[in-house]
Every structure is written in C-alpha cells, then in structure tokens.
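FORM 7B: Structural annotation worksheet

SECTION A. Query
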Amino acid sequence: MRRTASLVLLALAVFCTALSPLLRWYAFPRLAKIPPNQYQEMVLEAKDATLLDYGMMLPKTVPKVTIVQTLKGNVEASEKIERTAGRDVVVWDGLSYVVGPDGKMVSRIPERYIFDAHTQEPVHADGEHVDGDRVRREGIEFKWPFLTEKRDYNYFDAQARISAPIHYKGTQTFRGMEVYYFEQTIPWTKVPMPKKMPVKGITPESVAKTGTTRWYTTKRMFWIDPTTGAPVNGQEIHKEELRGGTLLGDRDKVTAFAGHVKMREDYIDYTVDLVKSQRQLVLLMTSYLPWGFLGFGAGLLALALVLEARSRRRGGPGAASGKRTPEPEPVNA
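SECTION B. Predicted structure
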C-alpha cells in the first residue's frame, strides 16, 4: 500500500515541478496582455507657467495650464492589423489636449500608437501617426514592458517625432511602492507646428510663410512599477519657443510655453491603487504560483521518498506473501 502511495506522490511531484516553468515561460507571455479596449485618462498641470498670447504675440505668466491626455483602445483597428501581424496587437488612439486658465484650447495633438499586447514593442502598420504626420516609432511610449529591467530604454518623443534613450536612474520608494526612476532629456529641437492652432486664421502653413519656426526641449521623468511596467507618476520640465521670421517682429525668439508639468494628485492616487491591484495578478503568474508549485512538488517528492524507504525497511523475504518467517529452533549441544 505504501509503495502505491509513494508512486502516486511521485507522479504528482513531477507534474507540479513541470507546471512551475510552464506557468512562468509559457502561460505568462500568453495571458499577461494589455486589453484592446482599454481606456485611460490622465490630467496633468503646470502651475505658474509661461504661455504665449497669440493675439499680442507676447509671453505671459498664467496661474495654471492643464493637459488632458486620453488613450482609447481601438478594437476594430487592432483586429484588422492582427490578421496580418500574426500576434496580439493593441491600437491606442491618443489625444493630448492643452487648455489655458480661461478654459480655451492652447493645442490639440492626436496620435495613433500601435504595439504588441505583451511586450509593448511597436507594430508598424498603416495609420501610425502623430498629429496626422506618419511616423515609425522605435522603442516604447506611455508604458514600459512587464517586468521592467534596470536598464535604459528607447522612448518615443511625440513632439520631435524621434526616439531617444530614457535612462534608468535608480530605485526609489513612491507611495509605499518600490519603483524604478527613469529620466530623458530632449535638447532644443525644431519641431512641427500643431495642425490645430489656438487662434482662428493662424495655420501651420501661414506661420511657415513668415519664416517663424517652433523649437522645443524637455526633461521627462517617470516613476515605473517594475512588475506591471505602468507609470505611477510622471513629470516634465517643458519649454517651447517660436524663433525668427517676420511674425515676431524685431525679436529673435519668444517663449510659447514654459512650465513644470505634473500629474494631478487625484490621478496619482487613482493610478497607484490601480497598479497595486494589477501587479498582484502579474506576480501570481511570475512568482507566487511558479515558486509555489515548485515548492509543493519538492515536498511531494520528499514524502514519496520517505514512504518508499519505510516500505523497504518493513519488507523482508516473506513480506510479499504476508507470512512470517519461522524462528529457528534452539540447538542443544
């Protein structure tokens, strides 16, 4: 009976031990994915910012500039791309909408970001754009990969339409979470004018005729949860200038925008709570279950060996038939 039990336990031990790497290396890449219909909204603010008055063409200090960023999953577009891509694809239709303290639009820049649902690597397909300009992204944008590593990544800058390294700067604690801090600096770069301008009658084409150009620089900072790859906080020290041309009169340049852009506190709280709940699901597939099955399998194997050893010690020449071996008769001299 003990030998039968030990064989059953041995089979279960092998099964649990084999299941451990399968969960981590087979199931996890196929189950941990960004849903194609996900919708996100983020509100950022730059207080005491500098903003250009396009009517007077003069910069002025304003109490607050608000940036509303939305990312909406386009299921129909993702399914269409998946037919030829051969993998799960997510299509995000994004919009960065900037408003001044009076609630009027400052700029409106749409974009479409197409990426692999698990790795977050860009997938190049028709429709990939920023403000109507076709782009070919290299590297990540908005989100880091699951199980983010302590290394530099390529990060796409939508203003400059280029990818540049974003550097890992160390591990920090943010709202009780261990996070990775990343930093990227885009030097002064000539960038396109937004297609949608805040003043009626002013278009990128009309500005281009004056010879005036738009320049931009930023220091971008992200605090990333390494398990999910989701940003729990983000900031930018952002500056824009208009340079040269007849539009500025006798001035060489004017500040179009300058400010320290930060996530609004209520959105930080919401994001941290959401990431904390999601990271448990990722840890379940990458750590808790694989290590649990491995430990359980080791325990079953030890128990099987113990039962097998006991059955061997109790067995003897007559153990199989159930008969006791007769004791020898005493011998008299």
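SECTION C. Observations
The longest helix spans residues 265-314. The chain has a mean pLDDT of 88.

SECTION D. Sign-off
Analyst initials: ____
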